[in-house]
Amino acid sequence: MRVGEICTVQTIYCTRDETVQGAALLMRSHHVGDLVVVDQRDGEKLPVGIITDRDIVVSVIALGLDPASLLVGDIMSDDLLTATADDDVYETIERMRFRGIRRVPVVNNGGALTGIVSVDDLLEFLAEEMGELSRISSHQQSHEKRARQ
Q1: What residue ranges define each of the domains in the chain, with the CATH number in brackets?
Q2: Nearest-5° angle of CA 28, CA 85, CA 51?
């Protein structure tokens, strides 16, 4: 299975010059816990970082800083791991596990944002795979019953 088959394509994003407060409001209005931070070039959105609700709490709120006076670029994680839509799901899981990353922007061959894949997306995929695997025994038993009659 390829990452492009399970990723969320309606990705919420902002630029690095958005205020942290503006980013928090975007997260709230779209019911998400992260935003992909992009640079816009030639009509393309190129991922350069990611900001999470946890980043805002730990780096801004807990320190008593003003989220309206800080920019996303000041606190975003810029050591970005990306995947392409053609990347194998299991290889992507391994890369995420190795880096301890829960969300990965999905990009096209030119590096432009096309989606995002999260641990939740991967857990849902794996749960479906396990469900299909669990049905093997019951199908085998049904087949044996029919074959023996």
Answers
A1: 3-118 (3.10.580.10)
A2: 30
